[in-house]
Design goal:
The chain is of the alpha/beta class. It has 2 domains: about 5-190 and about 210-215, Rossmann fold (3-Layer(aba) Sandwich), CATH 3.40.50; about 225-325, Helicase, Ruva Protein, domain 3, CATH 1.10.8.80. The chain contains 14 helices and 11 strands. The strands form 4 sheets. Strands 2-5-8-1-9 form a 5-stranded parallel sheet. Strands 3-4 form a two-stranded antiparallel ribbon. The protein has a two-stranded antiparallel ribbon with strand order 6-7. The chain is globular, with a radius of gyration of 21 Å. About 35% of the residues are buried.
C-alpha cells in the first residue's frame, strides 16, 4: 500500500475510534492520545490522577470500541503473584499439575491502583510486560496480541501504598498525568451522567478490523524520522544525564540523581512517530518529540533530595530541557 493510501486509511480508522470512544469519554483528549500512542507502539502506560477522572473508563471505552478483551485487577496489599499471572493446580486423580492462566492473559490489562500491592506482586508483571510471556512451572506461555498493561495510581493517597520500583516504572513507555477537565467539559459530563436514560453502551467500531489495528502499528513503525530528529532525541536524553554539558542547564548538575535510561531514547522515537501519525503525517518533527517528552521522561528522572527540598519536580526539569536544548 502506498504511503498516501496507508496514511488515509489510518486517519479513517483513528477517526472512527475517536468517535466511538468520545461517546463515553469527555474532555480528556490528551489521555485518549496517550492511549492510542500506547496501542500503536505496543507500549505500556501508567495513568496517574485522583479518583473520578475516568482513567479506568477510558481504557474500557477503548477496549470496547476495538472489540478487544480486557480484564481488571484491583491491586490490594493482600494480592499474591499467582492472582496476576496464574499458577499450577494439582489434579488428585492422576497426580499431575494443570496450568491455570491468570487475568494477565488478555489484550488490555487494567492494573487498578497498582501502587497498592507489594513489590513481589508488582514484579510479577515484569516478565509479562517485557517479554510478553508468562512462566508457569516449567512451561512458558505467550500472551495474546495485542497485549498492553494500562495501570492507574492515585498520587494523593499514600497510606498503604508501595512505590513502584525503578525497574518497573522504566518498563512503562508513558506516564500520563490525568488532570481535571475544563468547566464546560465537566458540564457535559455532569449532564450526561444525570439523565434518566441509561448511558449508551459502546460497540466495536464496525469499520475497524484486526487488520486495521495491525496497519496502525505497521504505519507507526514506518513514519519517517530524520537523523536530525534522532539527534534531538539523543540530546534530550543525554542532557538528563549530563546537564552541565548543555549551556543554560549548568545549575541542574546537582539536581538529577539518575537520568533517563536508553529505553527513554527508544520510547521517545516510537511515541514521536505515533504522534505524527495521529496528526495525519508520515514524518516526525521535533515538535512531536516535545509533545511526548513529558509523558516519556517524567517517570524516568530521579531527583536528589536537595532538588526536592527546593520544590523542583521532574516536570520542571523537562521544561528546562525543552527550553534549553537546541532544536534542529
Amino acid at each position: 500500500m502506498a504511503s498516501s493510501e496507508q496514511s488515509a486509511r489510518c486517519a479513517q480508522v483513528l477517526l472512527a475510534i475517536r468517535g466511538e470512544v468520545n461517546k463515553m469519554l469527555v474532555g480528556q483528549d490528551h489521555l485518549l492520545d496517550s492511549l492510542l500512542i500506547a496501542l500503536m507502539t505496543g507500549g505500556h502506560i501508567l495513568l496517574e490522577g485522583v479518583p473520578g477522572l475516568a482513567k479506568t473508563t477510558a481504557v474500557r471505552a477503548l477496549a470496547a470500541a476495538l472489540g478487544l478483551e480486557t480484564r481488571r485487577i484491583s491491586f490490594t496489599p493482600d494480592l499474591l503473584p499467582a492472582d496476576v499471572t496464574g499458577g499450577l493446580t494439582y489434579n488428585h486423580k492422576d497426580g499431575t499439575f494443570t496450568p491455570r492462566k491468570g487475568p494477565v492473559f488478555t489484550n488490555l490489562l487494567i492494573a487498578d491502583e497498582i501502587n497498592r500491592a507489594p513489590a513481589k506482586v508488582q514484579s510479577a508483571l515484569l516478565e509479562a510486560m517485557q517479554e510478553r510471556q508468562v512462566t508457569l512451572g516449567d512451561a512458558t506461555y505467550s500472551l495474546p496480541e495485542p497485549f498492553l498493561v494500562m495501570a492507574t495510581q492515585n498520587p494523593i493517597e499514600q497510606e498503604g501504598t508501595y512505590p513502584l520500583p525503578e525497574a518497573q516504572t522504566d518498563r512503562f513507555m508513558l506516564k500520563c498525568v490525568v488532570k481535571h477537565p475544563p468547566r464546560e467539559d465537566e458540564r457535559r459530563i455532569m449532564n450526561a451522567n444525570t439523565r434518566a436514560e441509561t448511558m449508551q453502551v459502546l460497540q466495536p467500531v464496525c469499520c475497524v478490523t484486526p487488520d486495521d489495528l495491525a496497519l496502525l502499528r505497521q504505519a507507526a513503525s514506518e513514519v519517517h524520522c530524520d537523523v536530525k530528529v534522532d539527534d534531538y532525541i539523543l540530546d534530550l536524553v543525554f542532557a538528563t544525564r549530563e546537564p552541565s554539558a548543555v549551556k543554560g542547564l549548568e545549575d541542574l548538575k546537582g539536581a538529577i540523581q539518575l537520568g533517563a535510561s536508553p529505553r527513554a531514547s527508544i520510547c521517545l522515537k516510537l511515541a514521536a512517530r505515533a504522534m505524527a501519525l495521529l496528526r495525519g503525517r508520515m514524518y516526525a518533527t521535533p515538535q512531536d518529540v516535545k509533545d511526548v517528552a513529558h509523558d516519556v521522561l517524567r517517570h524516568r528522572l530521579l531527583l536528589t533530595y536537595e532538588a526536592e527540598a527546593e520544590a523542583l519536580t521532574p516536570e520542571c526539569v523537562i521544561d528546562r530541557l525543552l527550553a534549553e536544548v537546541p532544536v534542529p
